[in-house]
Amino acid sequence: LFFPPQEVVNEESEEESNGVNLMEFSDEILLHILSYVPCTDLVLNVRRTCRKLATLCLDKSLTHTVLLQKDYKVNKDKVKQLMRDIGKEIYQLNMAGCYWLPSSTIDHVTRCKNLVKLNLSGCHVTSLRLSKMLSTLQHLRSLAIDVNPGFDASQLSSECKATLSRVSELKQTLYTPSYGVVPCCTSLEKLLLYFEILDRSREGFMLSGQLMVGESNVPHYQNLRIFYARLAPGYVNQEVVRLYLAVLSDRTPENLHAFLISAPGSFAETGATKNLLDSMARNVRLDALQLPKAWINGSGLLQHLKFNNPFYFSFSRCTLSGGHLIQRVINGGKDLKSLTSLNLSGCVHCLAPESLFRKAEDDIDSSILESLVVSCCNLRHLNLSAAHHHSSEGIGNHLCQLLSRLKHLLSLALPVCSITDVAASVEKPPTTPNLVPQTFGRKVRIGIQTYPRNLGDQANQKIESSVFWALMGSLRFLETLEIIGSSFSSAMPRNEPAIRNSLPPCVRAQSVGDSEVAAISQLTYLQSLTLAQLPNILTGSGLVSIGLQCQHLRTLSLANLGMMGKVVYMSALMDMLKHCKCLRDLRLEQPYFCAGAQFFQALSHCSSLQRLCIVSRSGTLQSDAVMSFMANCLEVIMCHMFMGESLTVCKNLQQSIVRSFQAERPALNVVIFPLLHEDLTEVIRDVPMRHLDEITLFKSRVAEEPPNLWW
Asked: CB-based contacts of 331: which residues, under 8 Å, 6+ apart?
């Protein structure tokens, strides 16, 4: 944006200007334009250019809500000046994930006397600082904080507790066993809990969730409407969440309409949780539901639960059959028009009539999927990943053909084997490259069939007649797409050593490759794309088509494409990156990846890139190329590389990047470490949760949480 000084605006020119002067636009149009400018720039820079902008930049529509959560250039001094200039005008302040700001920065929030909503997740806040700050925020109704080791609720003042007693929405991320501030929040209507407690301390001592038992206060849930808990792996997280649930099991809130627990692995049902679920079945009508798989599998719970106008269901990793899904949840399609988000990830039998004698690889029952599509016609987010959804032969029976009826979809996650044409997968034998075992063994030189690099020729081959091509053409407003192999597992799981071997792809997925990737280029409004374990990638030519056509692409994640012993799509990837001007996040996971000068030169064309993560067993990097890339791409604030280089090479490069760029990039976070090193988990625990959760760790994110769970 160019905002001329006032004297230039008022100066009459003898000749007509060929350009457009922004100052001639109406205030309404200018306010709309200014709404896209970060608040720190508006207040500290733009408003100083002329008198008109000085007034507009302080308009209530621009200062009412201040979002700093991804303003990576903001520092302590800018926050101080911002709060001094407009603190009294701020009603909503989001500083989530501002891990680089010192804890003293929080002191300046006390100037925002009228704050109603405050998000400090990921910020460094001590008990004393929290007490001092909340004591001055008498209008606060929504709060998000972290509870770190050393948190002491006894240090909270009576004024702070009075503020907390009026808070109706609380999001609390726990890094230590504690109730945090929950017992002080006696008016809670929405409670979001994120359990990130490690089983061992840094010193190697085992932790226990029973540390909470001595606390005298207990949560107050009588007004609760939404309860959400997300657990990271680990038994301590399970112990702690059970203590939170114990109060719920005594008396279920009458107004509860959303009950969601996301727990990885096995989380066994106990007598207390069974009593809670029985009470919910008797006393409440839900709009959103997610439960650990052990609480649903083999039980008749879903048959007894009552639903009002459900908008979110997650049955991730459950053994729920399609027959039960139709009978007990969809209820003949009477009540599911309101459903906007559905997560069936890892629900391997959800599209089959029964699961007792069925193999996971058997064909789906298209009538079940058709009932689902008809009943849930307003779905916007659908996750069917981590399962084998094989379509049977028959006109109109293919999964892609049925999903094409969901015209409102904004995000979609599918297994690779579900998008292949039935005729192609049944009649066509695997191409030569796929006869090579998908392992990390000795490289085998084989002949690769030629594949058209010209995008027009590509489109004229089989893709325009394929069911996946038709699906992509019908979902023109799709913003997020994930195509993930049903047996794919990342080499970097949470809290565990790196995985050294991967399972082979599904047989039905063997024919999925470049042509299917090219079909994705029809998604003009695509913003986030994940492709994992596509075995028949030969050249990666479809990536170039995506780079040219999907100009809104902001997030790209590619993993294990083509042969495992060679990065066959490197040339196409570099061509693609030259067109990705809006790309902000790039994650690459591929064995033997060479992060060299040519790659980083192509990546430098991504002028908006902010975060880069590369995971590669036996991968190599060129330190000089990385340093040159960091110097050229001024927006990059996260560089994570887990490769096959030695610890010395990794440490030296990491130190060089931090030493050269930390001063001018306060949010810079650099982790360069050998992927198979035994201390990898210790390194991972120091990564800011924002980066770890959003990009470093691989996972399916479609319908992971209810839409608009938090602002």
From this structure: none
Distance CA 29, CA 22 (A): 9
* 657-702: pLDDT as tens digits: 999 999 999 999 999 999 999 999 899 999 999 999 999 999 999 9
- Residues 186-195 pLDDT 10s: 999 999 999 9
The pLDDT, as a whole number, for residue 548 is 97
Alpha-helical segments (H) within 57-92: 60-63, 76-86
Tell me the C-alpha distance between 167 and 188, whole Å. Answer: 6
Q: Taking Cα atoms as reference points, which of 38, 47, 46, 45 lies closest to residue 67?
A: 38
State the SS3 of 530-581. EEECCCECCCCHHHHHHHHHCCCCCEEEEECCCCCCCCCCHHHHHHHHCCCC
* Domain ranges for the chain: 596-710
Taking alpha carbons only, the member of 346, 407, 351 closest to residue 379 is 407
In this prediction the pTM is 0.91
**What are the φ and ψ backbone dihedral angles of 48, each rounded to 5 degrees?**
-90, 0
- Confirm if 289 and 256 have CB atoms less than 8 A apart: no
428 Rama class: left (phi>0) / alpha (psi -120 to 50) / beta: beta
Give, to the nearest 10 degrees, the angle between helix 541-549 and helix 570-577: 10
The number of helices, as runs of H, and strands, as runs of E, in the chain is 26, 22
CB 316 within 8 A of CB 345: yes
